[in-house]
Amino acid sequence: MPYTYDSQNIFAKILRGEIPNSTVYESEHTLAFKDIAPSAPVHVLIIPKGPYVSFDHFSAEASDAEIVDFTRSVNEVCKISGVRMDAGNGFRAIANTGRDGVQDVPHFHLHILGGRSMGRMVTKTA
Ligand code: AMP
After folding, report:
1. What is the whole-number distance in angstroms between the Cα of residue 44 and the centre of ligand 1?
2. What is the CATH number of the domain that holds 31?
3. Cα separations (Å) of 33 from 4, 61, 88?
4. From the CB of 21, is ligand 1 less than 6 Å away?
């Protein structure tokens, strides 16, 4: 089944300027902004500007330029947020994906969480 993108999702509205956001960093193909309900002292969402529903969709269909731009943006956000390993204490990057990944907003986004220890990754119940 092909990926289908819902252009009414909240991050699409942010990209169109229809609702405000707290921008941390912006580049040609990528936008990063503060999560509205932060789960850690640093909680930034990094999104591609293109219409990709998930990390797998993005990695399958985005152009090389978009992928490079997104990846470099991760570094910029971590630098701005003071969580890079060379100058800070690190971070956790999370891409919730689909139903099992419990993804709420169907526009690919990478959570950057830091500013405190993030604890164990997941509960081992499998
Ligand atoms: P996920 O469950 O991975 O899809 O996460 C969606 C994230 O988007 C949650 O952490 C929300 O707090 C965040 N979020 C929802 N609406 C907004 C908004 N308008 N601005 C910033 N973050 C938002």
Report:
1. 10
2. 3.30.428.10
3. 24, 23, 20
4. yes
Q: Cα–Cα distance between 121 and 85 in angstroms, integer?
A: 18
Q: How far is the CA of 123 from the centre of ligand 1 (A)?
A: 22
**pLDDT at res. 126:** 65
Q: Is 111 a catalytic residue?
A: no
Digit-coded pLDDT (tens) for 24-56: 999 999 999 999 999 999 999 999 999 999 999
Determine, yes or no, domain membership for 81: yes
Total tally of structural domains belonging to the chain: 1
Q: Is 85 in the pocket of ligand 1 (CB under 6 A)?
A: no
As a whole number of angstroms, the distance between CA 22 and CA 79 comes to: 17
**pLDDT exceeds cutoff 70 at 118:** yes
The alpha carbon of 109 and the centre of ligand 1 are apart by a number of angstroms equal to 9
Would you say residue 37 lies in a domain? yes
